[in-house]
Q: What sequence folds into this?
């Protein structure tokens, strides 16, 4: 569900950048893209950024560095790279110790 939502949001944003005359719904689970008019023709290569839950620093791995980043975020510090959607592992809208617990479980499994 989470990946589907993120994927759709990224796709909608990319498509909206390609077509200037595109009518867009608000990107959410029910987002739709309607291309109203376009004179553009050609090939498109879409690079879809995917978010890996728990990979808070975006290096492709879930490990202690991600726990460190979440801990710093909770303590009010700003890590160099911090992906909030990846940090909110349980999807409750908050980034707190419960997410750290889940990241630890991901590492141990
Ligand atoms: Ca990481
Ligand atoms: Ca959370």
A:
């Amino acid at each position: 569900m989470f990946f589907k939502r993120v994927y759709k949001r990224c796709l909608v944003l990319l498509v909206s950048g390609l077509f200037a005359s595109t009518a867009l719904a608000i990107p959410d689970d029910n987002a739709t893209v309607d291309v109203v008019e376009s004179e553009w023709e050609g090939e498109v290569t879409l690079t879809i950024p995917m978010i890996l839950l728990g990979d808070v620093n975006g290096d492709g791995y879930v490990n202690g560095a991600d726990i460190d980043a979440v801990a710093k975020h909770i303590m009010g510090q700003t890590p160099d790279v911090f992906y909030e959607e990846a940090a909110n592992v349980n999807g409750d809208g908050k980034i707190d110790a419960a997410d750290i617990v889940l990241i630890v479980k991901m590492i141990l499994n």
